[in-house]
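Task: sequence design from structure.
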């Protein structure tokens, strides 16, 4: 369940999330933008060797075409660090930093804030509790799956924001599919409890792993939505590290619309 909202800007969205009042979300493809090869064109990362001015212009464009707001990035490190963006932090101007803090998951209930995750084969897993009006965005690669960063994030939403996972909606962005997620040394990299998700000799279905971890954390199976798009199979649409190690990063964002959320 995945579609293109705007073919000029190639923003992809999930229909179930589009039905949620006051929720803003999008996955930006690599098409367009200001970056030159091998980062062409909407590269969102300052950490891959691209022209900083081009990245800044790409980020500004994404902000404009998704309704502006405060865009929050982190320095992703394939760990389990979770950062909560609070109203006090936004008021003090700490939500946006010149040097983003290390974190692989972001949570907020502040209207006007956009949580951004940058990927090039890893998953961006977006979460929303429509009653508590809390959103999260998770950077989940294979190391994140092994560490169950999804489960840790859901627990943080419960303990820190009073969320109920039974109400949550999840969306798994474009990422490495079971067709291309090959791990020839999986005995050393992937723990045995995840081996049932092996496809063939050396491939793993990390889409199914994330769904399993979300359901284990309390989400309903019907509230978990995947794009079904493999980044390595579609390098013309999305950056893929497996397809080309020297490449850019595309972004997935989620947040609460300031105008609608303020009326609740």
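Answer:
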């Amino acid at each position: 369940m995945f579609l293109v909202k705007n073919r000029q800007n190639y923003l992809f969205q999930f229909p179930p999330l589009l039905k949620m009042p006051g929720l803003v979300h999008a996955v930006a493809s690599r098409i367009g933008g200001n970056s030159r090869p091998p980062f062409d064109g909407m590269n969102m990362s300052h950490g891959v060797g691209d022209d900083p001015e081009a990245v800044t212009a790409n980020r500004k464009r994404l902000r404009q075409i998704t309704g502006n707001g405060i865009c929050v990035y982190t320095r992703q490190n394939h760990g389990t660090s979770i950062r909560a963006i609070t109203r006090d932090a936004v008021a003090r101007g700490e939500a946006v930093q010149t040097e983003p803090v290390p974190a692989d998951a972001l949570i907020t209930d502040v209207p006007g804030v956009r949580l951004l995750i940058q990927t090039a084969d890893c998953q961006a897993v977006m979460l929303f509790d429509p009653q508590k009006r809390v959103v999260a965005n998770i950077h989940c690669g294979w190391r994140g799956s092994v560490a169950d960063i999804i489960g840790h994030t859901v627990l943080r939403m419960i303990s820190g924001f009073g969320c109920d996972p039974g109400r949550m909606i999840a969306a798994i962005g474009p990422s490495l599919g079971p067709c291309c997620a090959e791990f020839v040394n999986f005995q050393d990299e992937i723990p045995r409890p995840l081996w049932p998700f092996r496809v063939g000799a050396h491939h793993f279905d990390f889409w199914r792993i994330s769904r399993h971890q979300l359901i284990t954390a309390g989400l309903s199976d019907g509230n978990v939505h995947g794009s079904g798009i493999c980044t390595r199979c579609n390098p013309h649409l999305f950056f893929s590290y497996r397809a080309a190690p020297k490449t850019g990063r595309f972004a997935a964002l989620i947040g609460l619309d300031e105008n609608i959320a303020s009326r609740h």
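The domain at 3-261 is CATH 3.60.140.10 (CNF1/YfiH-like putative cysteine hydrolases).
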